[in-house]
Amino acid sequence: MNRILGIDCSPQLNKSVSELFGGKVSIQNDPFHEGMPLDGYQMIILEDGGDQEYNVKRIRSLRYACNFRNLPIVLIRSKDNHIPSQVYIMAGATEVLSLSDSPAACGQILNGHLIPNRKPMKEELEYLTPFVKNTCNVLETMASLQVEFQEAYFSNDIKIFGDVSGIMGLSGNAEGTLVVTFYWNLAKMIVAKMMGVEEGKLDAELIHDGVSEIINMISGSTKRDFVGTPYHFEISLPSVVVGSGHQVGHIHDTSIAVLIFNVGSQSFSLYVCIKPNNKDT
What we know:
35% of the residues lie in helices and 29% in strands. By secondary structure, the chain is an alpha/beta fold. The model has no long low-confidence stretch (mean pLDDT 92). It folds into two domains: 112 residues, Response regulator (Rossmann fold), CATH 3.40.50.2300; 155 residues, Chemotaxis protein chec (3-Layer(aba) Sandwich). It has seven helices and 14 strands. Strands 6, 8, 9, 10, 11, 13 and 14 form a seven-stranded antiparallel sheet that branches. Strands 2-1-3-4-5 form a five-stranded parallel sheet, with helices on both faces. Strand 8 and strand 9 form a beta hairpin. Helix 5 crosses helix 7 and helix 6 crosses helix 7. The N and C termini lie far apart (48 Å).
């Protein structure tokens, strides 16, 4: 049975949500607090707190606590909340619904979000493995960090909820986009170790430069591994984007793999969208 975490949900909302799922889910209701454990849940239902700033705060905190897992966060808004849904989507909500909407439509949407993300098949792991290997090698070599690959899944878009992201465009025999994204504290720690300085001596510009160099090294190392294969690519100049909730353009009709890594108790992710051009290599 799927487990759902209801946050700040009234008994009436819990009953309504359970009915929308046909009673086939287990809902645990807890009050919101920072650092909530989310392991073992397949969805989060959040009741509208009546205040935009408070709603955004809770959504952002929960999205951070997901550690880049694509855990659906659904805000059930009140009838008198006329704040545009995009405000909450940008903060990290997956969906914004109202119980005044069609029950059939709400039920279909909610059940759709319970469908698990697709995992890589064997042939897909063949092209993802070099990205995993080189991501670990770059941080272990440049920052003396132990990096553990956690999991991989496929997403429909590159929607980034890290604080700082390095982006690399790929072209040549294969084209696409590669994005590494970190929460700020982890990025700061990694860059400080790369530069051999104390974290307190880093400013935002140095952290941006460090993240840019990380995506550059991951791309360059993986490029060499793909020589002579349909996935061989050329790299461009990297760019850096700061701020959670940004969306990165990508090739349409191409799978986007999300690779999650752990450094101690902290996580970061690498988004891989690459498509061979079917030209002779």
